[in-house]
Write a structure and sequence with these properties.
Low-confidence stretches: 4-11, 216-220
EC number: 2.4.2.9
Strand content: 15-25%
Radius of gyration: 18 Å
GO biological process, one term: regulation of DNA-templated transcription
CATH topology of one domain: Rossmann fold
Mean pLDDT: 89
Family: Belongs to the purine/pyrimidine phosphoribosyltransferase family. PyrR subfamily.
Protein name: Bifunctional protein PyrR
Structural class: alpha/beta
Largest sheet: 5 strands, parallel
CATH class of one domain: Alpha Beta
Function: Regulates the transcription of the pyrimidine nucleotide (pyr) operon in response to exogenous pyrimidines. Also displays a weak uracil phosphoribosyltransferase activity which is not physiologically significant.
Length: about 220
């Protein structure tokens, strides 16, 4: 598989373009790691929980960076995975989802600062489900949210504390995060990890209006 570096028409009448390359993602994660330490005033009582499935490898990468920055943080014992399958509000419409294991550090999350990690923040419903799942495994002192991409279009009052990139999109566009851990198919050099936008070709007035009405874009 090869990810196009520039806009390119595909058979499905969409254009695909890379928004973040491997190096861009690395820089974004390094910045988020510093922000987490600053907001927490260090690494004490800090736990990272990645939302299955792409949130978990991102949490692992963030934990590795935190360990490099602050020797008092141990990535292996402060990183876990949170599965939200049974807490989703669309489970009746999509019942075939395969649950992933929820893995909580041995020290638990009670009284600790938990940073939920996910790849894309969109409607906010995934994070709402994650908060419900979190209640069933413990009572953190503080819960914060770190996402690689915030694409807007919120349906619930949820905001990320740490964002790799704010990405104004239209509702017609699709944002894909491709990571080596979860998406191992071959990609071009420099795009082993990447964020891609798939946008429909503006072949009719409705698509064009929706595209131009996206936040941060000026209608023509």
């Amino acid at each position: 598989m090869s990810v196009p570096e520039h806009a390119e028409q595909t058979p499905g009448s969409t254009t695909s373009r890379v928004i973040l390359s491997t190096s861009d993602i690395d820089r974004a994660l390094s910045r988020i790691a510093h922000e987490i330490l600053e907001s927490n005033k260090g690494s004490e009582d800090l736990v990272l929980l990645g939302i299955a499935r792409r949130g978990f490898p991102l949490a692992q990468r963030l934990a590795a960076r935190l360990e490099q920055i602050d020797p008092g943080f141990t990535a292996r014992t402060a990183t876990g995975q949170l599965d939200i399958t049974m807490y989703r509000d669309d489970l009746r419409r999509h019942p075939a989802r395969t649950p992933q294991p929820t893995v909580i550090p041995d020290s638990g999350i009670d009284g600790r600062t938990v940073v939920l990690v996910d790849d894309v923040l969109f409607s906010g419903r995934t994070i709402r489900a994650a908060l419900d799942a979190l209640v069933d495994v413990g009572r953190p002192r503080v819960v914060r949210l770190a996402v690689l991409v915030d694409r807007g279009h919120r349906e619930l009052p949820i905001r990320a504390d740490h964002v790799g990139k704010n990405l104004p999109t239209s509702s017609q566009e699709k944002v894909r995060v491709l990571l080596r851990e979860s998406d191992p198919e071959p990609r071009d050099e420099g795009h082993e990890d990447c964020v891609v936008i798939d946008a429909p070709v503006a072949s009719d007035p409705d698509v064009a209006r929706d595209r131009d009405a996206a936040p941060g874009r000026t209608a023509r």
